[in-house]
Structures are given as C-alpha cells and as structure tokens.
Amino acid sequence: MKVGVAISSFNSDQEVIQLINRIQEEQWPISGIMIVNSMGSNEIQDYLSSNKIQDIEYHNFNYNLGSAGNLHQRIQLASQRDWDFVLALNHDALVTKSTLVAQLEYVNLEKIGALYPLKFFPEKKFYDYSGTKEVGPWRAFGPINEPEKSLVPHIWSSSNGALYNLEPARKGILPNQDLWFGWDDYLYGLDLRKAGYEQFVVTKAICEDNYEFESRSLGPMTFKLSIKPAWYHYYRTRNLWWIAFYRHPSLFRILRVSIRTIAETLSICLGWEKDNKLLALKYQFIGMMHGISKKMGKWKVPE
After folding, report:
1. Beta-strand (E) ranges in 62-189?
2. What is the pLDDT of residue 270?
3. Which residues in 102-147 belong to E strands, given as ranges?
4. Under DSSP, is residue 148 helix (H, G, I), strand (E, B) or coil?
5. Reported pTM
6. How far apart are CA 294 and CA 30, in angstroms?
7. Which phi and psi (to 5°) does residue 63 adopt?
C-alpha cells in the first residue's frame, strides 16, 4: 500500500518549506511528497535544490488555480503516480504523523473513498461533525467529548487532512475546478458517494483546528463565527446553489441551501459583517444569481 502527500501552496512558500521539514523529520510513513503551487516564487524550488532534495515533485502553475483547481490538480497528478492513497494537505496542515498513522489503519476497507481526521475546535470546545449531514444553516457541530466509535460515516469533510483513495480519480472522478473557491470538498464528497464510495472520519486521528472564530453580537445573542472577507459570501453562496441545482439536484438540497442563504443574510444584517454589510449582501445576492444561472469559475476578488 503506497501513500503519498500532496500539498497546496499559494503565497505560502515558507509555510510549505516548514511542513516539508516536519514531515521528513518525523519520518511519516509515505512514499513521496508532491507540491502544487500557484504563481509561486522560486523559494520552494531553490530550497529543494540547495538542500539537494530530489524525491519531492514540485509543480508551479503561472496562474491562480484557486482552491478547487489546486485540489483537482493534486489528486489528478497523484493518480498518475503509483500511489494508492494521497493525503491532501494545505500549507497550514493540521495533521501530524500520528494522525496519518491512525487513518492508515482503515485503508484496506472496501469501497473507501476518503478517510478524514477528526477536527476539534478549541474555540468552540467540540468536535466537528458537520459532514455527517447535508450542508444546512448550521456552521459546525459535534460532541464535546471524544467519540467512542472508531469510524463515523460522513458525507464530506474538509480536504485539509483528507486521505483520498486514488481509485476514483483513475476512473475520472475528480474535484470540480469550476467552483474555483469553496465547497469543492463538499461536491467531491457527494460525487464519491454517488459513485458508491464510503467516507469516514477516523476518530482516533484527532487534530486541533484553530479556525478564525470571533465573537459577534447578533441582536441580543453572542456567537462565535468565522470571519472572512466580504467576497467569501459570493463563492460560498454561488457554489452551493450551483451544486443544488445542477450537480446533485434535489428539492431537499435546494431547501437546505435556501434556508442557509436566508440564515446567512440575517446574520450579516444582525452584525456578522460589521464594516461591509452592504458589500457582503451584494456579493451574496450576485453569488446566488450566478449559481442559478450557471456562471461559474473565477469572478471577482476585491482588494
């Protein structure tokens, strides 16, 4: 059983170099490392050359792949190697050697599409079980105590730390590049499930996710929410509507996406966005219109 690591990079050369060093120093049980960069400087390549590291495959695209395009390229390129599984990592990889070792215990199960680590949010003090359900109005949820089950069935999870079976990729099942940014892992999970592949969170493969949560007052209540630039509202709204209408259409999914969009609109109005409410609402509305009308790919990223 051969397992490789595929790392994404965009303006994160130093973080990728640190991750490479950590993987090598900890002697992860892998057959190789691949890096897929967008518009990178020569920093990573110079580092590999100056340290005479020859067993790391480096790809640098001269345009921005976006997160969806990068995941697509990593899995596609990994499927061309003699690897059986690939561990997808972002530059800010949360997993450790012990996380991967725990995931590897289950690679021999039949029809495995992906094995995910179990993420714990210190800020919210619970484990992430978002992917056990379809995307809905909730942000994330899960138990506050470590689960007893060794495997928890999932529909999808974040690609950062996901151990993907490369058999589906060799059959042409790949992450969709048209999403450009956001929900590519959700769509890929739906595609894997439709093709008959199972996905699980490995509960012993725990990693902490120090996501960018901030306390925000929404009317009389206070919540910890993920704070992102206003343009994020465009992509996360557009991509969900497109998935619900065209890639995996169902009234059930459209209803959930509708409720989520309404909930996010109310959250923006009540204080989720403190400085750019109108801009966030504008991008959200345009995203919904583009998703319904199948206008995909890269749109606009404000400065």
Report:
1. 85-89, 112-121, 126-127, 151-153, 163-165
2. 78
3. 112-121, 126-127
4. coil
5. 0.90
6. 40
7. -145, 165
